Fold each of these.
Amino acid sequence: MFKRILIANRGEIACRIIKTARRMGIETVAVYSDVDKDALHVEMADTAVHIGPAPAAESYLVIEKIIAACRESGAEAVHPGYGFLSEREAFAVALEAAGIVFIGPNRGAIAAMGDKIESKKAAAAANVSTVPGFLGVIEDDAHAVKIAEEIGYPVMIKASAGGGGKGMRIAYDRSEVAEGFNRSKSEAKSAFGDDRVFIEKFIVDPRHVEIQVLGDKHGNVIHLGERECSIQRRNQKVVEEAPSPLLDAETRERMGAQAVALAKAVGYDSAGTVEFVAGQDKSFYFLEMNTRLQVEHPVTELITGVDLVEQMIRVAAGEPLALKQSDVTISGWAVESRVYAEDPSRNFLPSIGRIVRFRAPVERHGDHFDQITVRVDTGVYEGGEISLYYDPLIAKLITHAPTRAGAIDAQARALDGFYVEGIRHNIPFLSTLMQHERWRAGRLSTRFIAEEWPDGFHPLQAEGERAKIIAAVAAVMEFQTTERKRKISGQMKHPHVPGDRRRIVRVGKQEIELEVEREGSGIDVHFIENGKRGRKRYTESTWKPGDALWLGVIDDDPIAVQVHDIPNGHLMTHHGIEVKVYVYKPWEAFAIRLMPEKAKLDTGKKVLCPMPGLVLSVEVTPGQDIKAGETLAVIEAMKMENVLRAERDGTVAKVHAKKGDSLPVDAVILEFA
């Protein structure tokens, strides 16, 4: 077994690999760029080596620097994680030449499967069902249009060396093919250094189901069941689960057998994933094979009990698999949510900056009495920074329970306990999803998000029972804060005043009237209905003034509410609802109602930068007449190109940005007359 391994990656996956290596008694070496010198993976590793400037192309993607770091640190092997160099044949070749073990598949398997075009040819040769498409060289956008029309719309344009949704476009007509082809090539060149793309038929209303395979260097290959990854945005997975609610035992067996056959055909000898696009009728077609560890691998680990990172290390060290296919059992259900630094209310655009506060849910491991497991894989810390140079993943939240409904409920509760301040994040969206009827019923497709939120995501509103829960928590916090103030030495004793317990809680734009009073170790909340006391709710918690989370029970139901302080009130988050809440005494509420609301600034004629990013191009000039739908500018953020289009006809009055500018969010790009 290796004594020391280097992790050629950063963030969450580097931290996750370190945990397993530490458990196995293996020393770890981290590598880091300029902006990652204080990163969590650097702190966790036994030693760390600096490898260059912030851009990945000058640090994490430079093979020579990784090999030099191995020599400097004495690392015997390298685990690439996912992304960066994990699927580069050249990396495996260079490591082999340097006498360093690659903790991943052999170079032949990477060559056969790592290239999306070659992998489809290999799959067809292994009698794996494949999607109709064109795998040859595409000369230009006119050639792309011709191919698309021969295949039939809609089509998928994909980067051959791609992954993570980059270099991928869906096209429904000629114009979308032409533009999508050029954008895919540009993104692929920027992200992977390889601008080759291919085109294939896009399956309407598809589901994304993948099989986890595991092989060794002795010819043994098994599969560990499937994962459903249909909840996607911009072709990037957001929520994954295992097993899939679509498959039955027979379909699982057939899909697993095809995945194993493909892996054996290319001599696969590590952990890898064979991805399929599946129809709602349970038909399935080979999509691609990822010759690396997947982001979503924890859900498979929780339902099988197999540590995939450990298996990869043992296989790379030459050990045969300790498992046979008959040993693999699936127990319970697991759900994983990717917590991203992005703003759901701005069409999920990336958010960068410093993490002022960070509190992850408490991890727990199910036992005989409580079979709920909560796992958090993260690479960030309080005070750290989300950089524009890398993927905006904050953490992965994984829950496991005996049933799918139980895993979803556990996920919803854990998301309420996730506290992130300083940047925008997608927790409100993830929490809303966990309450969504269609998601809970398992009626999924890769267009789920686009279909359910066609006009963009809008958070749940604080209404009905949810509004009352938030109001009760806010009133209880105000009551406890007042109790604490009255205990300050030297304060005048406060006499009992009739009606002093009554409060008006403004939740968003609605008002909820209630009374609060101490009841032993807890606090009673009486809701006022028609001027009289109505339903009573008993609350109890460990919250104290200043805590970022209210954790407790309301009538024996466990409740978690996030609390962000704002002037004179709180921004509170619960079950996907994010709302401003103010607690007033009755006379204060009367006065507040008389105050006029501040008018909002009119920015209707300005095009604002929707995210922090780099201006790749400005396609218009002052005085130019523009039609709705025309491209105005292209902004790059987190290696993704975002096209800004005109929402209506107009004339450009001023252009404030130019190619190469680095803009903050809401910076003015141009103005219309």
Note: The chain is about 25% helix and 35% strand.
Amino acid sequence: MSTDIATVATATRSIRNPILAGFHPDPSILRVGDDYYLATSTFEWYPGVLVHHSRDLVNWRSLGGIITDRRLLDLRGCGDSNGVWAPDLTYHDGQFHLVYSDVASFASGYWDPQNFLVTAEDITGPWSDPVKLHGRGFDASLFHDDDGTTWLLGMSADWRPGRDRFGGIEIQQYDSAARRLVGSPRILFTGSPVGVTEGPHLYRHDGWYWLITAEGGTSWEHQVTVARSRELFGPYEVDPDGPLLTSFGRPELRLQKAGHGSLVRTQNGEWYLAHLVGRPYSPLGNCVLGRETAIQRVEWPSDGWPRVAGGVPADDVVAPDLPAHPWPAEPETDHFDSPELGRCWSTLRRPATPDWVDLHTRPSYLRVHGGQSPVGRQAPSLVGRRVGAMGCSLETVVEFAPADHRQLAGITAYYNTLNWHHLYLTRADDGRTVLELLSSDNGRRTAYPDLTVDVGGVTRVGLRAVFDGPAVRFDYDLGAGWQGLPVELDATILSDEHAALIIDGEPAAWGFTGAFLGLWVQDLGGDGVHADFDLATYREQ
């Protein structure tokens, strides 16, 4: 099964969760006519805000990303798990509206967020220049009321020592004609006793305003909270029966971290909740696949509160009464015949521009011009794709002629600047081209000199990275078939949990992105080197 397309046997008329496997968090779901769209967070990766499309809520295909260039967002210097948080996708007056947050910091409660709005008549663009909104918090969303007014909601951050960092849900009117916020902001909702109130989405239904928020933090205590009011500005009453959805207190569930949800109503009046989940490799253990997207069926009686069966995430959900609409399967192998990178690929901190991602000079090859070191945050040269299963692999064939030890090209199992495994070609001091292995665990690097392989004049080298549950393995092919490096590396360091770092009660680092498999080229001397990749094959077991 592809990372980006979840295909379920339509004869069963069920949805198998997660519908978007691998790093696809904070889903915002939208229906326009017979089409359903899901927008998800992307943090420091381009393209920003991935969008998936469905016509039956069972089968999904990737439409790629909306934020494709620096005109819409500049991620140079972006920290690990900073960047694009919690997008919101709506449709109003013949236009798609996308609101997204660019979060710049974690330190001492200074998130330094900035919220933007772009619009388009078609989901595939072109998208307008961004409207700069406010920087008072993150997880911003739009609500288009029945009277024609539009409102911006968001988490209200409070940096002051001793205060609740999550100061409530704020609302302010947005003037669509003037493309600016108007009036004064006001706090709409201060949350339930669970706290960490964020991720608001507002709906009008059955004579009520319904406020859906994420609470409890984005890990094991995560939940979806529902509150309602007869008036836009409240007061909002929290569902007395507790959260609409949570995995908290149920470590036996396959789907954990259930929270951050948004609602959609089908053409036939059925309701569904899209939300994030995580699949730990052991009970409440590390989630190498990151935070994924799932869907639950919602029952909503007249004048009653919405309900998900049992209030917990189900692995299999009854599909809506809609015609089945599967999509063609994504090919396993990318031969790099297209003039642009395929939708399965993402690039780290800079868009895939021709100055470093070249699909033209050598047809049917991906030429990657080398970039910064693993800790560089301005111009790294890493082309990756999300890890979508506990068992999966990426293999490639690379041609690379390094001139010294500052030039490296190969394959990586990657999480962030501090956590990765890298098998690469480089040049030894004696002039040989060699294959070396290097790992980084929270910045502590481990080399494996005993595993160095003399390439011996071979111009085309096969490289393969394999995720096998909690282990990562690397293989190589010098023309005589695949050979495995005799070492198993720790896959669980490539996880949200491992990346998180709390110092004196403050987050010094966080983990929101999930693991990647990628093609990585480093030119540490700035000598202008490049590597050519002939193909890339991704498989899941």
Note: Confidence is low (pLDDT under 50) at residues 1-11.
